[in-house]
Design brief:
Helix content is 29%, strand content 13%. It is α/β, with parallel strands linked by helices. The protein folds into two domains: 198 residues, Vaccinia Virus protein VP39 (Rossmann fold), CATH 3.40.50; 169 residues, DNA Methylase, Chain A, domain 2.
């Protein structure tokens, strides 16, 4: 089977589908650095670094004829519980999903697969219509039957609590999976944090390099062996520099705890002074991973929100990639951290605008979950 990846990101969906035997014949991604990451890891797949609105129907027909599966995860920030609006359509990013449907209508694939946040189930297009109803009707109007699946990434061997909505559509309802069940279903089977990091080269705050660091010990778990497949070491393993006060704060946060559990004197300070800002103590600030549990959900901002389970620092990009189930041989291009877009524009540094390695990792579809979705489709075939 052949697939097309829309809003391809770094290639999490692509990698999972590839491992299931599905061949991608193209991918579309608007962000410069993310497209570079995709090209680096999938040199055999054409990557179109373009705005999806720029494709004409004629181009779509010519470039992507014969595609069996159109898959993608349109940007979800407008429906995310992390940044809700009264009505989803207020956020322009949510209109991108209509472009997803345009591609389907032109290509007429056997299947289309849409991955998004759970907020898509409750988000509204207007005061009366839920987004999910509008989308299901849009698919129905172009001749597709659809089924909604709520998936837990941890059930698919991703060491992270991450619920997602997947909509699979086909022209014949009998071609739809009745269920998508992961090989690690059930909390007792989930991969815990202690199985993720233990074999990585030790780097403290301010240490590490972006290039290859050879492994210096044997893998300590089956998951680590899986991560190491076809790799001699790790890349993107650089720890951020921290102030002494921040390191002391991390030292006072227990495993599984957050900034709320640290003594008050280690709270965040006001921007324009040394006084503590009592209003900036949230459960999602400086969350320390617990070795005996799955990770919290990895988001695009995890660079500053997660604390290593054992070391007093934030996570490296590679550690986040492992939590997302990207293998160690998967390299992330672009800047390590995100710089202010307004600052870059003001200083005429336009070539530096784009998503950081952390952003790319947090935005991605976990490859192991994508593999489970693909296998459910392949079994029917």
């Amino acid at each position: 089977m052949k697939s097309l990846d829309l809003f391809a990101g770094a290639g999490g969906m692509t990698l999972g589908f590839k491992n299931a035997g599905i061949q991608s014949i193209g991918a579309i991604e608007i962000d410069r650095f993310t497209a570079e990451t995709f090209k680096h890891n999938f040199p055999e797949i054409p990557i179109y670094h373009r705005d999806i609105y720029s494709f004409t129907n004629e181009e779509i027909s010519e470039l992507f004829a014969g595609v069996d599966i159109v898959a993608g995860g349109p940007p979800c920030q407008g429906f995310s519980v992390a940044g809700p609006t009264q009505y989803g359509i207020i956020d322009k990013r949510n209109t991108l999903i209509m472009e997803f449907f345009r591609f389907i209508e032109v290509i007429r694939p056997k299947y289309c697969v849409l991955e998004n946040v759970k907020g898509i189930l409750s988000g509204k297009m207007n005061s009366t219509q839920k987004a999910i109803s509008v989308y299901m009707d849009a698919l129905k109007n172009i001749g597709y039957k659809s089924r909604v699946y709520i998936l837990q990434a941890a059930d698919f061997g991703v060491p992270q609590f991450r619920e997602r909505v997947v909509i699979i559509s086909a022209q014949d309802e009998k071609d739809l999976p009745t269920a998508i069940v992961g090989d690690f279903s059930g909390e007792k089977n989930w991969i815990k944090v202690r199985d993720v990091f233990g074999d990585l080269p030790l780097v403290n705050a301010g240490e590490g390099v972006n290039d290859l660091i050879p492994y210096d010990m044997e893998p300590q778990s089956v998951y680590q062996e899986f991560m190491r497949k076809n790799s001699n070491g790790v890349t993107n393993h650089v720890a951020m520099k921290h102030t002494r006060r921040l390191i002391e704060r991390f030292a006072n946060i227990p495993q599984g705890g957050s900034l709320l559990d640290a003594p008050a004197e280690y709270g965040q300070r006001q921007r324009n002074g040394n006084e503590l800002d009592a209003n900036k103590r949230y459960k999602t600030n400086n969350q320390r991973l617990h070795p005996d549990k799955v990770s919290f959900i990895v988001t695009a901002s995890f660079q500053s929100t997660f604390v290593h389970p054992y070391l007093n620092r934030n996570l490296t990009a590679r550690e986040g990639a492992r939590l997302q189930s990207f293998p160690d041989g998967f390299f992330f291009c672009g800047p390590r951290t995100l710089m202010s877009k307004s600052l870059l524009i003001r200083e005429d540094r336009l070539d530096e605008i784009g998503l950081s390695q952390y952003n790319q990792i947090g935005n991605a579809v976990p490859p192991r979950m994508a593999y489970g979705i693909a296998k459910a489709i392949v079994r029917i075939r």
